[in-house]
Amino acid sequence: MNDRDLEHYRKLLLVLKSRILGDVEMLTAESLSEESGISTGGYPTHPADIGTESYDQEFTLELLQNNGNTLDSIEAALVRISNGEYGSCTECGGRIPKARLDVLPDTPHCVKCAQQLQG
Questions:
Q1: By C-alpha distance, which of 119, 99, 3 is closest to 110?
Q2: Does residue 119 contact residue 109 with C-beta atoms inside 8 Å?
Q3: Per-residue confidence (pLDDT) for residue 114, from 0 to 100
Q4: Angle formed by the axes of helices 47-83 and 3-32, nearest 10°
Q5: What is the mean pLDDT of residues 23-45?
Q6: Which domains are assigned to the chain?
Q7: Helices marked H in 1-119 — which ranges?
Q8: pTM for the full model?
């Protein structure tokens, strides 16, 4: 992979990182705001409202965890670019096609290894 390609993927990863950090910031602020909780106004809370709030909180926490995992993956990809290892599968050492990197720029695996690891 040439320097121009590496710079392209580095910029792509940085844009993705910035977008995810914005999502994390928004989700965190939303989950911590007073508006996200159910205001009872002194009236008893319906059990369905409590269930909905609980589901929303769990969903937000899961999104934050997934975003954290993606940020870790992006950081690892940026390190691979710095080390000259980007575009090579971390399992088999084979080349990761540019078409795959265009869709999943943080992927550390070729398709074959990714399928074996998932399956």
A1: 99
A2: no
A3: 96
A4: 160
A5: 65
A6: 3-32+52-118 (1.20.120.910)
A7: 3-32, 47-83, 98-103, 111-118
A8: 0.77
